[in-house]
Recover the amino acids of this structure.
């Protein structure tokens, strides 16, 4: 069992930056891939970025490549999402998730491959 708690969201101007954190409890944190998803009002939850258990492999949605960086610190049971050059269209609730994305041939980006979810943190980008 893994419990996830996101933090670091807030209000930022267009072009600004934020760093999200997701703290995990549970001894199996380092066994799982971790991912960030986001959901804007009235839209489906969409994949943002993922990282394998070791931190050596990462995968990004095309829309955030070169701007977002996912990383993890297994010693601290924490995964991070560094975001730069944010746009108002990226206003959403950002969720971290834990699962088997990228493993056993599982898609990195499918919500179905992530079994534990945090409550989310709001990111608002003003124009």
């Amino acid at each position: 069992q893994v419990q996830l708690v996101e933090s670091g969201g807030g209000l930022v101007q267009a072009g600004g930056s934020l760093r999200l954190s997701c703290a995990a409890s549970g001894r199996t944190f380092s066994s799982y891939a971790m991912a960030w998803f986001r959901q804007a009002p009235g839209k489906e939850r969409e994949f943002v970025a993922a990282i394998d258990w070791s931190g050596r492999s990462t995968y990004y949605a095309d829309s955030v490549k070169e701007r977002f960086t996912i990383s993890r610190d297994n010693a601290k049971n924490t995964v991070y999402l560094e975001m730069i050059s944010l746009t108002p269209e990226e206003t959403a609730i950002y969720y971290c998730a834990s699962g088997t994305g990228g493993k056993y041939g599982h898609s990195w980006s499918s919500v179905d491959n992530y079994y534990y979810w945090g409550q989310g943190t709001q990111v608002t980008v003003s124009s």
User: Anything to note?
Assistant: The mean pLDDT is 95. The CA atoms of residues 33 and 94 lie 17 Å apart. DSSP finds no helices and eleven strands in the chain. The radius of gyration is 13 Å.
